[in-house]
Amino acid sequence: MNRLRHFTPICLSLTGLLMLATAHAGIPEDLNAARDAFRVKDAARLEQLANRLDGTLGAPYPRYWQLALDLDNAAPSRVDAYLKQYADSWMSERLRLEWLLSLGRRQQWSVFNQFDAKLGNETQELNCYRLLARQAGGTTLPPAELKALWYSGAEQAKGCLTLLDSWRRQSGLDSTAVWDRMRLALREGRITKSDRLDAARATNDWLPAGEQLDLRQLESIYNSPTSYLARLSEFPKPRAAREVALFALNRQAMLDPAQAAALLQRWQGGMDAVDRKYAWGLVAHWASFKLMPEAVEWYRLAGDTALSETQLGWKVRAALRGKDWAMVKEAIAAMPEKMASENTWRYWKARALAAQGNLDEARELYQGLAGEYTYYGLLASEELGQNTLNLRESYKPTEAEVKQASQMPGFARGMLLYQMDWKFEANREWLLTQRELDDKLLLAAAEYARRNQWYDRAINTADRTKQLHNFSLRFLSPYRDVMKLHTERLGVNEAWVFGLIRQESRFASVARSAVGAAGLMQLMPGTASWIARRIGLAGYQQSAVHDIDTNVLLGTSYLKYVLDSLGHPVLATAAYNAGPGRARAWLGGKPLEGAIYTESIPFDETRDYVKKVMSNAVFYAAVLGDPYISLKKRMGTMPVRGSVSLAPDAQ
């Protein structure tokens, strides 16, 4: 609902509350008290509560907090004992990561190697410490891996900076290599007034003393690039001044690509080819982000300059809107292998190949995607001629399997924490436990979650299966009587609304986002009040937003309103997430294929949101027994921007 957000679902069923009160009596109170003791560093109170919780599902938490009070000085034997005793808890993995980072910071490499193990949530800093540990043991580090770190341009943790500084000294990197790293750091990052060590600040320390940049000047340029650029009559020659000028140009392009392009046209006569192409890459990126048709031509002026992954993605999007299939194919070919293998780019490469007449190659790519139950899987299947959706026969877990899942410590602990409203920890416990399960136990766990109205985990767990599937779990449809009542009354597609709610709240009726969006359909307070007045809902109070019937009434009414205002479900879906004004502004000067419109939405969250809601609608239609409407038909064709007029209250 016109916001970029993370939601925190809260759903305490009566059954769950009764189970909590009986099977786990006293644990929630003690766990909350132990957390409070940890926060105020009351070691004596924490020890008392830890003793009381020993032998219960809550035991890993206070014992972890005891170690965390002074982890740097913890005895390795204590850490090892914890890791072995609580291996079935997410807290064990968390402790191992924090312990390894502590050992890395203190360069205790022999102990580090004893405790090192593959983790489910690896970090770049941990991998840098692993390289440092290997180096300390006499291993020659792979230059390609170090070079990739050096030229990443991204902010890096202290462990990685230590590694790179060591490599810089040993390999004799000259100032040119440091300047090249600075260029990437200034392109990828932003200068802030905070004290954290970002890529630009760290790189600046490695430049010769007389060549270092004035970071305060960069902060000033970031806030007001126009005033700085107005003082430049031509592109400067010294390396430091060139990098500052390009940083200012990039910032100006973020604000006004056309103005930046005009400036670059004046400069380019005094620029060498490398700087000129690099600068056009900067301008083209922001022009494509702002959906300017000129972006295609400006990308051509960038020539063979090395573009970042972000720039390459936007080059594809600009080419799609410009129907330049050769450029689509060229940009995808320039992507790193890992990026090019993502479903997004495999699909659009297939489309580019097909548009250029390479039908056999396109078909091969489509076939590789078609077996997946995803947005691109559906689109690829339809390109291959699919005109119906035959979901594989569902597997229904047995009662014995559901009982087995419910008795697994990680799932039981996750359910306890969920019912305590410790959502982050509950999800982590659940994710760790499901990591190595086969399809049957995954579906049993999903059913266990469903029975306890933990719909988020039910859906996400059922989504992980590889061979055996249960689409009624993957695409849950609770509250269907309420849904049918309001969708039929308003004439809104029920499968579409279910698909939207699945993405919005995962059916948590009292979900609340970080910015205040609430209920099944995640209504913002102002939107809820406005639509309540518009439909004449007398006596509406904000507290009613968590009532299922009221929330669905308001949400479907608002969805119907934006659908009528904008004229297309794709636009209405984008509007529900980012606002009607933005959804309209993203239209083009010519009609756009719905999939191209969606692919070029500038907001990452909204782009992903529209894809998932619209593909969810196809799957829900199949699960609910509705007539098949292909995803391509649902996506349709977007009208020209000027043909869609919004009433003032829809802006």
Characterization of the model:
By secondary structure, the protein is mainly alpha-helical. The protein has a domain at 480-650: Orthogonal Bundle (Lysozyme), CATH 1.10.530.10. 64% of the residues lie in helices and 1% in strands. It is built from 39 helices and 4 strands. The strands form 2 sheets. A two-stranded antiparallel ribbon has the order 1-2. Strands 3-4 form a two-stranded antiparallel sheet. Helix 6 packs antiparallel against helix 7 and helix 33 (525-534) packs across helix 34. The longest helix has 21 residues, at 604-624. The radius of gyration is 28 Å and the shape is globular. The model is unreliable at 2-14, 16-21 and 193-197 (pLDDT under 50).
Concise account of the structure shown:
This protein has 651 residues and is mainly alpha-helical.
What keyword list fits this structure?
single chain; 651 residues; mainly alpha; Lysozyme; two-stranded antiparallel ribbon
Topology:
Elements: E1 7-8, H1 14-23, H2 27-39, H3 43-53, H4 60-68, H5 76-85, H6 90-105, H7 109-115, H8 124-136, H9 143-150, H10 158-171, H11 175-188, H12 199-205, H13 215-223, H14 225-229, H15 239-255, H16 257-267, H17 273-289, H18 295-302, H19 309-321, H20 325-333, H21 337-340, H22 343-355, H23 359-370, H24 375-383, H25 399-406, H26 409-419, H27 423-434, H28 439-451, H29 455-462, H30 471-474, H31 480-490, H32 494-504, E2 512-513, H33 525-534, H34 548-566, H35 569-578, H36 580-585, E3 592-593, H37 594-599, H38 604-624, H39 631-635, E4 637-638
Antiparallel strand pairs: 1-2, 3-4
Helix pairs in contact: 2-3, 2-4, 3-4, 5-6, 6-7, 6-8, 7-8, 8-10, 11-12, 11-15, 15-16, 15-17, 16-17, 17-18, 17-19, 19-20, 20-22, 22-23, 23-24, 25-28, 26-27, 28-29, 31-34, 32-38, 33-34, 34-35, 35-38
